[in-house]
Amino acid sequence: MSSIAFAPAGQAIAKSPSKKHAVATSKQKKYSPRISSEYRINPNKTKSMRPAKVHARKPAVDAEMFDSFVGKSSNSNLAIASTKALVMNQNTHEIIYSKNLDTPTPIASVTKLMTAMVVLDAKLNLNDEVSITEMDVDYLKGTSSRLPVGTTMTREDLLNLALIASENRAASALATHYPGGKQRFIQDMNAKAASLGMMNTHFEDSTGLNSNNVSTAMDLARMVHAAYQYPMIRQITTTSDYDLDVHRRQPLHFHNTNALIRENTRSSWEIGLSKTGYISEAGRCLVMQATIAGEPLILVLLDSVGKLTRIGDAKRIKKWMEHNYSTLSSQNNGRGDIVLTGLSMSKTLGEDAN
After folding, report:
1. How far apart (Å, rounded) are the C-alpha atoms in residues 291 and 49?
2. Which pLDDT does position 105 carry in this prediction?
3. CA distances from 209 to 48, 59, 141, 282 (A)
4. Is 11 within 8 Å of 195 (Cβ atoms)?
5. Exposure b/e, 139-167, CB count within 10 A at least 16 = b
6. Residues pairing with 252 in the sheet
7. DSSP-derived pairing of the beta strands 214-215 and 252-255
8. Which residues are tagged catalytic?
9. What is the DSSP letter of 6?
10. What pairing do the DSSP bridges indicate for beta strands 152-154 and 214-215?
11. Residues 136-174: pLDDT tens digits?
12. Residue 79 pLDDT
């Protein structure tokens, strides 16, 4: 059985190319992934894999891409509508479900998790007041914002708005007011990705509006795990609402872009980290850390069509896990009632991501 290891966060970091050079390179040739043999799924091996012995009629298994998973019967297959997806046990590192695991794709505002890590790694004063500038206006996609040019707030406010409401001007301002400016910020984003072993990931902006921000489901699992090591990112991304006092009659009210977070107080979801994303090139995206059926999971759902598809996929995963995975954990005879037709993580993900 193959294995995938998350590279330690403290390893040597190769110097990242400048933004100017990166843009020039992207015009010359289309981005192509560098997938090591560790990441490839060998069809010859997967075709020979057998599901665990179950007491019901033996269902078929999609051995090529592991798109379906088997529970007690063929009616309990897990069907995910997102084009690329990954469900991984954060403790045991087992990949419970994968779909187009190593296919690079634009990641939209999921980018903002890396933006937050770079800001926190720099240990900048979060109480410093910074302003939204003309450089932070989105002239690429033309997205709107409730933060006019000249709006002043703390760096901590910017982090909250970027992660909770996915505010693009807030994420841009974090890079604008970074030592060395936006160019240095993008360099540090790519250096951080390299240090986490995200070998198929590339960043060109801090917001995710640029479709050249690309990654894979596997690389994003690494990023989610790393971001989870930051208590502040966990706290902010699981906050349902945020009020910003900008010296108006009423504070500006922002809500979390993940509907599951807003429902969290009246549902059975136990979410430890969350980030959504959307641009037309990326489709609807959602990454989360959540405890389901007593197990901490990392969920990556990319390129969903329709506003509710990614939420529907997350709910299907939760329902399937609660129906099947708890049954497995209660079995002591070594057989179980679930088929984990995924890859096994043989090494730790890197405990110190800071």
Report:
1. 28
2. 98
3. 42, 42, 7, 10
4. yes
5. eeeeeebebeeebebebebbbbbbbbbbb
6. 244
7. unpaired
8. 109, 112, 166
9. P
10. unpaired
11. 999 999 999 999 999 999 999 999 999 999 999 999 999
12. 86
Residues 6+ apart with CB under 8 A from 152: 129, 130, 131, 132, 246
Q: Which amino acid, one-letter code, is at 161?
A: L
Q: Is pLDDT of 92 > 70?
A: yes
Give the chain's mean pLDDT: 78
Helix (H) or strand (E) holding 313: helix 309-329
Report the amino acid identity of residue 281. Answer: E
Considering only residues 268 and 216, tell me which one the structure prediction assigns the higher pLDDT.
Answer: 216
Helix (H) or strand (E) holding 278: strand 271-279
Contacts of 267 (CB under 8 A, 6+ apart): 260
DSSP state of 109: G
Q: Please identify which residue in the block is written with the tokens 């057998």.
A: 50
Whether the pLDDT of residue 3 is over 80: the answer is no
Q: Could you report the per-residue pLDDT of 57-81, keeping only the tens digit for each?
A: 333 322 222 233 332 223 357 889 9
